[in-house]
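TICKET: design request
STATUS: open
ATTACHED STRUCTURE:
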């Protein structure tokens, strides 16, 4: 429970800093398309950082270990790393093949959300 609240909080701080860097540090230095990619990564990053906070709170409400929710949380973390991380890497390096990793993160997000939903049906 505490771990996901901590991870969510750290990721929220990172997402805000990364978004600000994109707006102020990358503007005029990368193409508009690359800046859009950066913003997409930051947008998904902040949404899923919030989800990690929610997962931590759900864990405290359920009052029993839920391996599905735990796995869902780690899938959300993986989604942030692979989806947002690959977009950040692509923009910073200019290597567009980083974009091939992005869908792996998207699938991790989807699987994580499904496990959160299954947990809610079973426990709430």
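STATUS: resolved
RESOLUTION: sequence designed for all positions
ATTACHED SEQUENCE:
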């Amino acid at each position: 429970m505490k771990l996901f609240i901590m991870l969510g909080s750290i990721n929220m701080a990172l997402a805000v800093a990364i978004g600000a860097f994109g707006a102020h540090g990358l503007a005029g230095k990368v193409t508009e398309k690359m800046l859009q990619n950066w913003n997409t990564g930051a947008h998904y990053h902040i949404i899923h950082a919030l989800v990690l906070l929610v997962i931590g709170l759900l864990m405290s409400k359920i009052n029993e270990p839920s391996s599905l929710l735990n796995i869902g949380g780690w899938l959300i973390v993986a989604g942030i790393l692979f989806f947002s991380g690959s977009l950040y890497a692509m923009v910073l390096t200019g290597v567009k093949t980083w974009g091939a990793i992005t869908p792996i993160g998207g699938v991790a997000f989807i699987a994580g959300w499904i496990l959160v939903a299954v947990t809610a049906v079973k426990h709430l």
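CLOSING REMARK: Residues 32 and 38 are 10 Å apart (CA to CA). The helical segments are 2-26, 32-62, 67-93, 102-123.
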